[in-house]
Amino acid sequence: MSIEAGSKLQGKVTGITHFGAFVELPGGSTGLVHISEVADHYVKDINELLKVGDEVTVKVVNVEKDGKVGLSIRKAVDRPEREETARPQRARSFQRSGNGSHRGGNKPRATISFEDKMNRFLKDSEERLTTIKRQTESKRGGRGAKRG
Predict the structure, then answer these.
(1) pTM exceeding 0.70
(2) pLDDT digit string, tens, across residues 24-83
(3) CATH 2.40.50.140 fits 8-76, yes or no
(4) Domain edges within the chain
(5) What is the residue-wise DSSP string for 64-113?
(6) What is d(CA 143, CA 7) in angstroms, rounded to the nearest whole number?
(7) Is 74 within 8 Å of 60 (Cβ atoms)?
(8) Nearest-CA neighbor of 32 among 76, 78, 1, 63?
(9) In what residue span(s) does the S1 motif domain sit (predicted)?
C-alpha cells in the first residue's frame, strides 16, 4: 500500500519514547507521531495519552525520501470549519493614571494609532528605567560613591 501525505490511516502504537510514538501502518511500514502532534493541548508525558498496542487514527503529514513517515493524531480528528472571526475587543483600556483609578463605563473611545501606542510605551518605559536606576544608585550609596 502506498502511503501519501494527507491520507488518514489506522495504525497500532508499537513504541513510545520521550519525543513521540511509533505507529505501525498498514503494509508493515512504521511512522512517528511527534509528541507535539498527539493532542491539541500541551503534552508533558506521552504515556498519559498512549500505550503500546493502542489502535489510533493518524494523518500522514509527510513522507521523506529516505522513507521516514511523519504522522499526526491531532490532525486526523475532523473538526468543523471555523469561520474567520475578528479578535474579540478588550473590555477596557490599560492606561495608567496617577491615582490608581481606571476609566469607568463602557464609553466608546477613539482608536489610538500604533505610533501613539509606541510613543506612550517608550515614555512609560523610560520613566520606569529612570526610577529603577535612581533606586539602585541610592542603595549603592549614590552618585560617585566609592565601592569598597
Answers:
(1) no
(2) 999 889 999 999 999 999 999 999 999 999 999 999 999 998 989 999 999 998 766 555
(3) yes
(4) 8-76, 111-141
(5) -TTS-EEEESGGGS--PPPPP-PPPPPSS-----TTS----S----PPPP
(6) 69
(7) no
(8) 63
(9) 6-74
